[in-house]
Design brief:
Layout lengths: L2 H15 L30 E2 L38 H4 L3 E2 H12 L6 H8 L4 H16 L2 H15 L7 H6 L9 H11 L6 H4 L7 E2 L6 E2 L16 H6 L6 H12 L12 E3 L2 E3 L27 H7 L23 E2 L5 E2 L13 E4 L2 E3 L2 H9 L2 H15 L14 H13 L4 H9 L2 H4 L2
Antiparallel strand pairs: 1-2, 3-4, 5-6, 7-8, 9-10
Helix pairs in contact: 3-4, 3-5, 4-5, 6-8, 14-15, 14-16
Protein backbone atom coordinates (compact mmCIF):
# COMPACT_ATOMS: atom_id res chain seq x y z
CA UNK A 1 0.00 0.00 0.00
CA UNK A 2 1.63 3.30 -1.06
CA UNK A 3 1.65 6.57 0.88
CA UNK A 4 -0.99 8.17 -1.34
CA UNK A 5 -3.40 5.30 -0.59
CA UNK A 6 -2.72 5.72 3.13
CA UNK A 7 -3.52 9.42 2.90
CA UNK A 8 -6.80 8.71 1.10
CA UNK A 9 -7.83 6.03 3.60
CA UNK A 10 -6.92 8.35 6.45
CA UNK A 11 -9.02 11.14 4.99
CA UNK A 12 -11.99 8.78 4.56
CA UNK A 13 -11.60 7.59 8.13
CA UNK A 14 -11.59 11.16 9.41
CA UNK A 15 -14.62 12.00 7.32
CA UNK A 16 -16.47 9.01 8.77
CA UNK A 17 -15.50 9.92 12.31
CA UNK A 18 -16.82 13.43 11.78
CA UNK A 19 -20.44 12.27 11.48
CA UNK A 20 -22.70 11.72 14.48
CA UNK A 21 -25.29 8.96 14.80
CA UNK A 22 -27.86 10.80 12.71
CA UNK A 23 -25.45 11.28 9.85
CA UNK A 24 -25.08 15.03 10.34
CA UNK A 25 -21.65 16.60 10.00
CA UNK A 26 -19.85 17.61 13.19
CA UNK A 27 -18.69 21.22 13.45
CA UNK A 28 -15.20 20.76 14.90
CA UNK A 29 -14.57 24.50 15.10
CA UNK A 30 -17.68 25.81 16.78
CA UNK A 31 -18.19 23.30 19.57
CA UNK A 32 -21.11 21.42 21.04
CA UNK A 33 -20.16 18.32 23.03
CA UNK A 34 -17.74 17.98 25.93
CA UNK A 35 -19.32 20.99 27.62
CA UNK A 36 -17.87 23.31 24.98
CA UNK A 37 -21.03 24.92 23.73
CA UNK A 38 -21.53 26.22 20.21
CA UNK A 39 -23.87 27.90 17.83
CA UNK A 40 -25.33 24.75 16.28
CA UNK A 41 -25.20 22.41 19.27
CA UNK A 42 -23.67 19.66 17.10
CA UNK A 43 -21.30 17.38 19.03
CA UNK A 44 -17.56 17.51 18.50
CA UNK A 45 -15.65 14.56 17.09
CA UNK A 46 -14.14 12.15 19.64
CA UNK A 47 -11.00 13.56 21.21
CA UNK A 48 -11.83 17.13 20.11
CA UNK A 49 -12.33 19.69 22.87
CA UNK A 50 -13.24 23.36 22.76
CA UNK A 51 -11.13 24.18 25.77
CA UNK A 52 -7.72 25.48 26.76
CA UNK A 53 -6.29 22.90 29.13
CA UNK A 54 -2.89 22.57 27.51
CA UNK A 55 -0.50 25.16 28.91
CA UNK A 56 2.68 26.19 27.16
CA UNK A 57 6.00 26.80 28.89
CA UNK A 58 5.54 27.95 32.45
CA UNK A 59 2.17 26.22 32.84
CA UNK A 60 0.05 29.16 31.65
CA UNK A 61 -2.68 28.56 29.07
CA UNK A 62 -2.24 30.46 25.84
CA UNK A 63 -3.73 33.94 25.73
CA UNK A 64 -7.02 34.13 23.92
CA UNK A 65 -7.86 30.43 24.13
CA UNK A 66 -11.51 29.74 24.93
CA UNK A 67 -12.16 27.75 28.07
CA UNK A 68 -15.09 25.42 28.62
CA UNK A 69 -18.43 27.18 28.64
CA UNK A 70 -21.19 28.30 26.33
CA UNK A 71 -19.00 30.47 24.17
CA UNK A 72 -20.11 31.19 20.60
CA UNK A 73 -18.23 30.95 17.33
CA UNK A 74 -17.85 34.71 17.19
CA UNK A 75 -15.33 34.57 20.05
CA UNK A 76 -17.57 36.07 22.73
CA UNK A 77 -17.25 34.34 26.08
CA UNK A 78 -19.96 32.29 27.70
CA UNK A 79 -19.93 30.97 31.23
CA UNK A 80 -16.27 30.49 32.03
CA UNK A 81 -15.19 31.49 28.51
CA UNK A 82 -12.11 33.72 28.23
CA UNK A 83 -11.31 34.92 24.73
CA UNK A 84 -9.42 37.61 22.90
CA UNK A 85 -11.97 39.60 20.93
CA UNK A 86 -9.21 40.81 18.62
CA UNK A 87 -8.46 37.30 17.31
CA UNK A 88 -11.79 35.60 16.53
CA UNK A 89 -10.20 33.04 14.22
CA UNK A 90 -7.79 31.93 16.93
CA UNK A 91 -10.60 31.88 19.49
CA UNK A 92 -12.63 29.51 17.32
CA UNK A 93 -9.93 26.86 17.32
CA UNK A 94 -10.48 23.68 19.28
CA UNK A 95 -8.08 21.19 20.82
CA UNK A 96 -7.77 18.08 18.65
CA UNK A 97 -5.19 15.74 20.14
CA UNK A 98 -5.78 13.07 17.52
CA UNK A 99 -4.92 15.42 14.67
CA UNK A 100 -1.98 16.84 16.61
CA UNK A 101 -0.67 13.31 17.20
CA UNK A 102 -0.73 12.56 13.47
CA UNK A 103 1.24 15.72 12.69
CA UNK A 104 3.72 15.27 15.53
CA UNK A 105 4.36 11.63 14.71
CA UNK A 106 5.22 12.37 11.08
CA UNK A 107 7.65 15.10 12.12
CA UNK A 108 9.25 13.45 15.14
CA UNK A 109 9.62 9.84 13.97
CA UNK A 110 8.60 9.93 10.30
CA UNK A 111 5.57 7.60 10.44
CA UNK A 112 1.86 7.82 11.21
CA UNK A 113 0.85 6.94 14.78
CA UNK A 114 -0.72 3.57 15.58
CA UNK A 115 -4.49 3.41 15.20
CA UNK A 116 -4.72 2.17 18.79
CA UNK A 117 -3.02 5.34 20.04
CA UNK A 118 -5.42 7.56 18.10
CA UNK A 119 -8.41 5.59 19.34
CA UNK A 120 -7.20 5.81 22.96
CA UNK A 121 -7.08 9.59 22.72
CA UNK A 122 -10.48 9.72 21.00
CA UNK A 123 -11.95 7.60 23.80
CA UNK A 124 -10.81 10.06 26.47
CA UNK A 125 -13.77 11.40 28.43
CA UNK A 126 -12.13 14.65 29.55
CA UNK A 127 -9.63 17.12 28.10
CA UNK A 128 -7.20 16.38 30.94
CA UNK A 129 -7.24 12.66 30.18
CA UNK A 130 -6.68 13.28 26.45
CA UNK A 131 -3.89 15.71 27.19
CA UNK A 132 -2.13 13.21 29.45
CA UNK A 133 -2.32 10.50 26.78
CA UNK A 134 -1.10 12.86 24.06
CA UNK A 135 1.79 14.26 26.11
CA UNK A 136 2.91 10.73 26.99
CA UNK A 137 3.05 9.85 23.30
CA UNK A 138 5.20 12.93 22.55
CA UNK A 139 7.58 11.87 25.33
CA UNK A 140 7.74 8.35 23.90
CA UNK A 141 8.48 9.65 20.39
CA UNK A 142 11.35 11.77 21.68
CA UNK A 143 12.85 8.58 23.13
CA UNK A 144 12.23 6.57 19.94
CA UNK A 145 15.37 5.68 17.90
CA UNK A 146 13.63 7.08 14.83
CA UNK A 147 13.74 10.55 16.38
CA UNK A 148 17.50 10.52 15.80
CA UNK A 149 16.92 9.89 12.09
CA UNK A 150 14.46 12.77 11.71
CA UNK A 151 16.78 15.06 13.66
CA UNK A 152 19.68 14.29 11.33
CA UNK A 153 17.47 15.08 8.35
CA UNK A 154 16.27 18.31 9.94
CA UNK A 155 19.79 19.50 10.64
CA UNK A 156 20.83 18.61 7.08
CA UNK A 157 18.08 20.90 5.84
CA UNK A 158 18.98 23.58 8.38
CA UNK A 159 22.70 23.55 7.52
CA UNK A 160 21.97 23.14 3.80
CA UNK A 161 24.47 20.34 3.52
CA UNK A 162 24.55 16.56 3.40
CA UNK A 163 26.53 13.63 2.05
CA UNK A 164 25.78 12.84 -1.63
CA UNK A 165 24.32 9.38 -2.14
CA UNK A 166 23.97 9.26 -5.92
CA UNK A 167 26.93 7.40 -7.44
CA UNK A 168 27.56 10.11 -10.03
CA UNK A 169 27.56 12.83 -7.36
CA UNK A 170 29.96 10.87 -5.18
CA UNK A 171 32.28 10.32 -8.15
CA UNK A 172 32.23 14.04 -8.90
CA UNK A 173 33.49 15.01 -5.45
CA UNK A 174 37.02 16.45 -5.43
CA UNK A 175 39.74 14.14 -4.14
CA UNK A 176 40.04 14.36 -0.39
CA UNK A 177 36.51 15.70 0.11
CA UNK A 178 35.21 15.38 3.68
CA UNK A 179 32.00 13.75 4.85
CA UNK A 180 29.22 16.29 4.47
CA UNK A 181 26.94 14.59 7.02
CA UNK A 182 29.01 14.85 10.18
CA UNK A 183 27.80 18.35 11.15
CA UNK A 184 24.13 17.35 10.98
CA UNK A 185 24.87 14.08 12.76
CA UNK A 186 26.69 15.84 15.58
CA UNK A 187 23.95 18.49 16.01
CA UNK A 188 21.36 15.70 16.12
CA UNK A 189 23.38 13.85 18.76
CA UNK A 190 23.35 16.97 20.96
CA UNK A 191 19.56 17.23 20.72
CA UNK A 192 18.83 13.52 21.12
CA UNK A 193 21.21 13.32 24.08
CA UNK A 194 19.53 16.23 25.87
CA UNK A 195 22.78 18.22 25.88
CA UNK A 196 22.85 22.04 25.98
CA UNK A 197 22.30 23.63 22.57
CA UNK A 198 25.56 25.54 23.02
CA UNK A 199 27.49 22.29 22.61
CA UNK A 200 26.69 22.47 18.89
CA UNK A 201 28.97 25.51 18.81
CA UNK A 202 31.50 24.73 21.52
CA UNK A 203 32.13 20.97 21.92
CA UNK A 204 35.85 20.21 21.85
CA UNK A 205 35.69 16.46 21.18
CA UNK A 206 33.66 13.87 19.29
CA UNK A 207 32.24 16.35 16.79
CA UNK A 208 32.34 14.04 13.75
CA UNK A 209 30.27 11.10 15.04
CA UNK A 210 29.02 8.14 13.04
CA UNK A 211 25.46 6.89 13.03
CA UNK A 212 23.69 3.78 11.75
CA UNK A 213 20.22 4.61 10.43
CA UNK A 214 17.42 3.47 12.69
CA UNK A 215 19.69 2.68 15.62
CA UNK A 216 19.27 5.85 17.66
CA UNK A 217 22.91 5.44 18.74
CA UNK A 218 25.73 7.85 17.94
CA UNK A 219 29.40 6.88 18.09
CA UNK A 220 31.62 9.91 18.83
CA UNK A 221 34.64 10.43 16.60
CA UNK A 222 37.12 13.21 15.90
CA UNK A 223 37.03 15.22 12.70
CA UNK A 224 40.79 14.90 12.18
CA UNK A 225 41.15 18.07 10.13
CA UNK A 226 43.74 19.66 12.44
CA UNK A 227 41.38 22.38 13.59
CA UNK A 228 41.04 23.76 17.14
CA UNK A 229 37.68 22.03 17.57
CA UNK A 230 34.51 24.03 18.26
CA UNK A 231 31.38 22.01 17.56
CA UNK A 232 30.17 22.22 13.97
CA UNK A 233 32.03 25.52 13.43
CA UNK A 234 35.19 23.55 12.65
CA UNK A 235 33.47 20.65 10.87
CA UNK A 236 35.34 19.89 7.62
CA UNK A 237 32.11 19.32 5.68
CA UNK A 238 30.73 22.72 6.66
CA UNK A 239 34.01 24.45 5.84
CA UNK A 240 34.23 22.71 2.45
CA UNK A 241 30.58 23.35 1.61
CA UNK A 242 30.94 27.09 2.17
CA UNK A 243 34.45 27.63 0.80
CA UNK A 244 34.71 30.99 -1.01
CA UNK A 245 36.82 34.08 -1.55
CA UNK A 246 37.96 35.59 1.75
CA UNK A 247 35.81 33.07 3.70
CA UNK A 248 32.80 35.34 3.23
CA UNK A 249 30.33 32.47 2.70
CA UNK A 250 31.53 30.84 5.91
CA UNK A 251 30.83 34.04 7.84
CA UNK A 252 27.41 34.27 6.19
CA UNK A 253 26.63 30.66 7.17
CA UNK A 254 27.46 31.38 10.81
CA UNK A 255 25.31 34.53 10.83
CA UNK A 256 22.23 33.23 9.02
CA UNK A 257 22.01 29.76 10.55
CA UNK A 258 22.63 30.79 14.15
CA UNK A 259 21.30 34.36 14.31
CA UNK A 260 18.34 33.83 11.98
CA UNK A 261 19.03 37.05 10.07
CA UNK A 262 21.08 38.22 7.14
CA UNK A 263 23.77 40.88 7.33
CA UNK A 264 23.88 43.68 8.42
CA UNK A 265 23.96 42.06 11.84
CA UNK A 266 24.44 45.08 14.10
CA UNK A 267 22.88 48.51 14.56
CA UNK A 268 24.58 51.40 16.33
CA UNK A 269 22.87 53.95 18.54
CA UNK A 270 23.32 56.90 16.18
CA UNK A 271 22.99 56.40 12.38
CA UNK A 272 25.18 58.77 10.35
CA UNK A 273 24.41 60.12 6.87
CA UNK A 274 27.27 59.09 4.64
CA UNK A 275 27.80 59.10 0.87
CA UNK A 276 24.81 57.51 -0.86
CA UNK A 277 23.11 56.37 2.33
CA UNK A 278 23.34 55.99 6.10
CA UNK A 279 25.99 54.30 8.18
CA UNK A 280 24.28 52.27 10.91
CA UNK A 281 26.95 49.97 12.40
CA UNK A 282 28.23 50.43 15.97
CA UNK A 283 31.81 49.76 14.79
CA UNK A 284 34.12 52.67 13.92
CA UNK A 285 33.84 53.22 10.18
CA UNK A 286 37.59 52.79 9.69
CA UNK A 287 37.76 49.49 11.63
CA UNK A 288 37.85 47.63 8.28
CA UNK A 289 40.14 47.92 5.29
CA UNK A 290 39.29 50.56 2.69
CA UNK A 291 40.48 53.39 0.53
CA UNK A 292 41.89 53.58 -3.00
CA UNK A 293 44.96 51.46 -2.25
CA UNK A 294 43.12 48.58 -0.58
CA UNK A 295 42.54 45.38 -2.62
CA UNK A 296 38.84 45.63 -1.75
CA UNK A 297 37.46 49.02 -0.68
CA UNK A 298 35.14 47.98 2.15
CA UNK A 299 34.81 51.67 3.07
CA UNK A 300 33.17 52.58 -0.22
CA UNK A 301 30.02 54.70 0.03
CA UNK A 302 29.47 55.37 -3.68
CA UNK A 303 26.65 52.86 -4.25
CA UNK A 304 25.89 51.20 -0.93
CA UNK A 305 27.43 51.57 2.51
CA UNK A 306 29.57 48.42 2.42
CA UNK A 307 30.70 48.93 6.02
CA UNK A 308 27.19 48.35 7.38
CA UNK A 309 27.71 44.65 6.72
CA UNK A 310 31.47 44.31 6.54
CA UNK A 311 32.28 45.81 9.91
CA UNK A 312 30.70 42.60 11.27
CA UNK A 313 31.78 40.21 8.50
CA UNK A 314 35.42 41.27 8.41
CA UNK A 315 35.86 40.61 12.13
CA UNK A 316 34.54 37.03 11.73
CA UNK A 317 35.66 35.78 8.30
CA UNK A 318 39.45 35.77 8.93
CA UNK A 319 38.96 33.12 11.63
CA UNK A 320 37.70 30.71 8.95
CA UNK A 321 40.31 31.63 6.35
CA UNK A 322 42.73 28.87 7.43
CA UNK A 323 40.45 26.06 6.18
CA UNK A 324 41.18 24.84 2.65
CA UNK A 325 38.65 23.75 0.02
CA UNK A 326 38.37 20.30 1.65
CA UNK A 327 37.81 21.69 5.13
CA UNK A 328 41.32 20.97 6.43
CA UNK A 329 42.79 23.52 8.82
CA UNK A 330 46.29 24.82 8.03
CA UNK A 331 47.62 26.72 11.03
CA UNK A 332 49.27 30.04 10.24
CA UNK A 333 48.62 29.83 6.49
CA UNK A 334 45.55 31.46 4.95
CA UNK A 335 43.83 29.18 2.40
CA UNK A 336 41.39 31.58 0.71
CA UNK A 337 41.91 34.18 -1.98
CA UNK A 338 41.09 37.84 -2.44
CA UNK A 339 39.10 38.40 -5.68
CA UNK A 340 41.40 40.83 -7.47
CA UNK A 341 42.80 40.29 -10.97
CA UNK A 342 44.41 37.84 -10.84
CA UNK A 343 43.22 36.44 -7.46
CA UNK A 344 45.87 36.31 -4.75
CA UNK A 345 46.08 34.54 -1.40
CA UNK A 346 44.40 36.76 1.15
CA UNK A 347 46.28 38.57 3.89
CA UNK A 348 44.81 39.72 7.19
CA UNK A 349 45.25 43.32 6.01
CA UNK A 350 42.73 42.59 3.23
CA UNK A 351 39.99 42.46 5.90
CA UNK A 352 41.29 44.69 8.69
CA UNK A 353 43.66 47.67 8.72
CA UNK A 354 46.88 47.75 10.70
CA UNK A 355 46.13 48.20 14.38
CA UNK A 356 42.68 46.56 14.03
CA UNK A 357 43.76 42.94 14.27
CA UNK A 358 40.70 42.22 16.37
CA UNK A 359 38.26 39.37 15.86
CA UNK A 360 34.79 39.58 17.33
CA UNK A 361 31.35 37.98 17.27
CA UNK A 362 29.80 41.39 17.80
CA UNK A 363 31.05 44.89 18.62
CA UNK A 364 32.29 44.64 22.20
CA UNK A 365 32.39 40.82 22.10
CA UNK A 366 36.05 40.22 21.22
CA UNK A 367 37.28 36.70 20.49
CA UNK A 368 40.69 35.23 19.75
CA UNK A 369 39.92 32.02 17.86
CA UNK A 370 37.04 29.82 16.68
CA UNK A 371 36.47 28.12 20.07
CA UNK A 372 36.05 31.51 21.74
CA UNK A 373 33.80 32.58 18.86
CA UNK A 374 31.62 29.54 19.50
CA UNK A 375 31.44 30.38 23.21
CA UNK A 376 30.43 33.97 22.46
CA UNK A 377 27.73 32.76 20.07
CA UNK A 378 26.37 30.19 22.53
CA UNK A 379 26.03 32.91 25.19
CA UNK A 380 24.23 35.31 22.86
CA UNK A 381 20.46 35.52 23.61
CA UNK A 382 19.84 36.26 19.92
CA UNK A 383 21.41 32.90 19.00
CA UNK A 384 19.32 31.16 21.65
CA UNK A 385 16.16 32.82 20.31
CA UNK A 386 17.13 31.70 16.81
CA UNK A 387 17.18 28.08 18.02
CA UNK A 388 13.65 28.54 19.38
CA UNK A 389 12.52 30.11 16.11
CA UNK A 390 13.88 27.24 14.04
CA UNK A 391 12.15 24.62 16.21
CA UNK A 392 8.87 26.54 16.00
CA UNK A 393 9.07 26.88 12.21
CA UNK A 394 9.83 23.17 11.88
CA UNK A 395 6.90 22.16 14.09
CA UNK A 396 4.46 24.32 12.15
CA UNK A 397 5.83 23.52 8.67
CA UNK A 398 6.90 27.10 8.03
CA UNK A 399 9.73 28.05 5.70
CA UNK A 400 13.26 29.12 6.54
CA UNK A 401 13.44 32.16 8.76
CA UNK A 402 16.07 33.82 6.53
CA UNK A 403 15.57 32.43 3.02
CA UNK A 404 11.77 32.45 3.18
CA UNK A 405 11.32 35.32 5.61
CA UNK A 406 9.45 33.10 8.10
CA UNK A 407 10.06 35.39 11.05
CA UNK A 408 8.13 35.04 14.32
CA UNK A 409 7.07 37.89 16.64
CA UNK A 410 9.06 37.85 19.86
CA UNK A 411 5.77 37.80 21.77
CA UNK A 412 5.31 34.26 20.47
CA UNK A 413 8.81 33.02 21.32
CA UNK A 414 9.42 34.90 24.59
CA UNK A 415 7.96 32.24 26.92
CA UNK A 416 9.72 29.43 25.04
CA UNK A 417 13.04 31.30 25.16
CA UNK A 418 12.73 31.83 28.91
CA UNK A 419 11.96 28.15 29.47
CA UNK A 420 14.76 27.13 27.07
CA UNK A 421 17.30 29.19 29.00
CA UNK A 422 16.03 27.89 32.34
CA UNK A 423 16.41 24.30 31.09
CA UNK A 424 20.11 24.79 30.27
CA UNK A 425 19.29 25.16 26.56
CA UNK A 426 17.96 21.61 26.29
CA UNK A 427 16.54 21.42 22.77
CA UNK A 428 14.70 18.15 23.41
CA UNK A 429 12.77 19.87 26.20
CA UNK A 430 12.13 22.80 23.87
CA UNK A 431 10.79 20.50 21.18
CA UNK A 432 8.46 18.82 23.68
CA UNK A 433 7.12 22.17 24.87
CA UNK A 434 6.38 23.32 21.31
CA UNK A 435 4.74 20.04 20.26
CA UNK A 436 2.52 20.04 23.37
CA UNK A 437 1.64 23.75 23.24
CA UNK A 438 -1.85 25.12 22.75
CA UNK A 439 -0.83 26.46 19.36
CA UNK A 440 0.21 23.01 18.16
CA UNK A 441 -2.79 21.02 19.43
CA UNK A 442 -5.46 23.52 18.38
CA UNK A 443 -7.04 23.54 14.92
Amino acid sequence: MNRRTLWILGALALAGAACDGSGSSTDTLNGGANGAGGTSGAPLAPGVFNTSNNPGPGGTPSTGASSSGSGSSSGSSGSGGAVDAGNPNLDDRVVNYGEALRTASMKLIGVFPLLADIQAIEAASTPAEAQTLYNAKITAMLADPRFADTQIEWWRNTFKTGQPTDAAEVAALPKGSPNFDTAATFAASVVVGGQPFGNILTAATGTCPTYVAGSGTFTPASCNNNAPTAGILTDPGIQAQFFSHMAMRRARFVQEIFSCSAFPAELGPAPVAMGSGTYTSPWPFDSITGGPTAPIDFQSTSAVICANCHTSINHIAPLFSYFDANGNYVAGKIQVQTPVTPPVTSQLSDWLPAGEQTFAWRFGSTVTDIPSLGAAMAADPAVQRCAVTRVWNWAFSRGDVVGDGAVIPTTVTDSYLTAFQAANQNMKTLIQSVFTSDDFVKF
